[in-house]
Amino acid sequence: xxxxxxxVFAARGVRRRIGRAVLTVAAIALASALLSSLLIAGxxxxxxxxxxVSKGGPLAGIRVDAAQPVVGELQDGSGEDxxxxxxxxxxxxxxxxxxxxxxxxxxxxxxxxxxVIPPQPAVVATAPAKVKRxxxxxxxxxxxxxxxxxxxxxASELPVTPIAGRLPQPDSMxxxxxxxxxxxxxxxxxxxxxxxxxxELEYGSAREIRSLGAxxxxxxxxxxxxxxxxxxxxxxxxxxxxxxxAVRAARAWTINGDNPAELGTPQSPYAALFVVADSLDAVPRxxxxxxxxxxxxxxxxxxxxxxxxxxxxxxxVLGGIGLIGLIIAALGISxxxxxxxxxxxxxxxxxxxxxxxxxxxxxxxxxxxSFLGALGGAVGTFLGxxxxxxxxxxxxxxxxxxxxxxxxxxxxxxxxxxxxxxxAALALVAGTIPAVRAARxxxxxxxxxx
Amino acid sequence: xxxxxxxxxxALAAWLIGALCAVVGAAACGSGSNPSAGSSSGAATATAxxxxxxxxxxDNASAPLDDPIPVGQTWPQFFFRNALSRNTVFVNLxxxxxxxxxxxxxxxxxxxxxxxxxxxxLLGFADINEGNSAADFGRALxxxxxxVRGAGAHTVLVGTLxxxxxxxxxxxxxxxxxxxxxxxxxVNVAPLPVTFVRNPSDFVRVPDAASQxxxxxxxTAAYRAATSAPPASPASP
Lengths: 450, 237
Description:
The complex is a heterodimer.
Chain A lengths: L2 H14 L1 H36 L7 E5 L25 H8 L4 E15 L25 E8 L11 E4 L9 E5 H6 L7 H4 L3 E9 L8 E14 L9 E4 H12 L16 E6 L5 H10 L4 E2 L2 H43 L1 H9 L4 H44 L11 H28 L2 H6 L2
Parallel strand pairs in A: 3-8, 5-7
Antiparallel strand pairs in A: 1-9, 1-10, 2-3, 2-6, 2-9, 4-7, 5-8, 6-7
Helix pairs in contact in A: 1-10, 2-8, 2-10, 2-11, 8-10, 8-11, 10-11
Chain B lengths: L1 H28 L23 E6 L16 H9 L5 E4 L7 H15 L3 E5 L2 H6 L3 H17 L4 E5 L9 H13 L3 E3 L8 E3 L6 E3 L1 H19 L10
Parallel strand pairs in B: 1-2, 1-3, 3-4, 4-5
Antiparallel strand pairs in B: 6-7
């Protein structure tokens, strides 16, 4: 019997008992939906928790501060900042750190003190029409802040996550993102982040010009559109994030003045570096090398490693629960196939009488079982994805009401593969005993039963 | 027959165990990845592109005092906010009690360094206070305009003094004449109902908040008329 004939026989078997086939597929689909939704939810929880621990940056990220290291700093893997005396980070230091072994990349960060003028009049004037709740902001006053600059072409290496809008274009001089600190300055809550997106702020860096007399500080003012709100601060005390070229221009205005130190501008050209190690395992070694190079650094590598371990355990448990469901469904397939063998004894007898071998009969039943399993697996995987998306929508509503970044749900290829091929394989396993039993049925006995 | 069945059972058992292990292994092992990502880089080397620059040259009516007028609500800030394109950089060089002569000596050198594309000038309040002659004022103003033009300013706006300021008329005549001669944009502040408040720190009178806005609007309207520039941006208040 050819494969084609076997497929035709298997399809005929399914078609003849369509009700049983549908119920079998439904059982597999439900079990597969459970497995895939649990795996997807586990993956989302993993990335959300790790994002939170690493503040949206790479897991193997290390923050290097413009300060000397202190004793005991390397033993701390919590990510807390422990600083020594100030120390300049310049281009030479960046070049040295970039050359250290197991360093994948280095991203520099500048910070410049500025005076920020929020939108005039209040944000409510430019709030989207659909926002019905009035915004309690009236004539927000200028306030002292820090303008943080980074190379935003490598935004994925920064510990920032947009909760509304997007990050500024890397080469823009007129776009900024703000943190929740800015929202608080305007009297807004974290869940009102969308209100400020699309509004404009002005920031001015100061220069001391002594020849102008007693009031000698003059601002260099720039207007910028707020294109996004980020959940975490690049630096906890700064609330405006801009492309590094904009911050460099602001800093140049100040440091080319008469007394830049008096205006609070840090001596170090760069306030911090974000170093990404080759792997999480390499982080302690890279930190040691950076400390030897003379710079304070911090990274939550211990915390991340612990979280990863716990999350992996949770994923195994969730996968196990889903698998139990799938095995129960496979038993259902086995039961249905055994019933089919009993019902189709005459048909098996006829097949054997006209020359079908044991393996031909076995092949027909295995094909039928694997087809039902694969179909149920595919349907169930998409169903599980839908369930995970629905749950994610509910979770996102809650997170956004708390001013936190939402979660994104997609269907990873591995989950799809596990759902479809795993279900097919289990169905194949479940169908093996009935198939073997059918194959061993002697033709005479099969015909004579009637 | 029995031997055949025995082999079959062993093969079946092995096959079952193998298939089950494959499924369990795929579920447990394929459950995570390290999202560490990034490309190697050194220090960011982006530099600021050239941006248009607005400078304001003025006296106590224009200086960024913050008391009693918040820095964001002075007329130069309104002008910057409402008239200029968003990529413009703005520096207010105004100095309190600066006469036109003082502005020529102190503010102009700073303005030259900035290579402004647009310059806005509002002077005369201090000159009236000090009793300087309108003719001297006119000559200094003329030199100022020539100076900022030489530094690159393609548009120069000069404001007149409000009629509510006693003794403004002769100065306004000089301002109008200089603006005409130097092809500067004349901003007619004179008819505006400008009222004053006293700066508590040094007792200098400055236009109040409402008047600052009106002066800013007058400069904005004049600039737009001179350059046919559209409103600054929809997002600006």
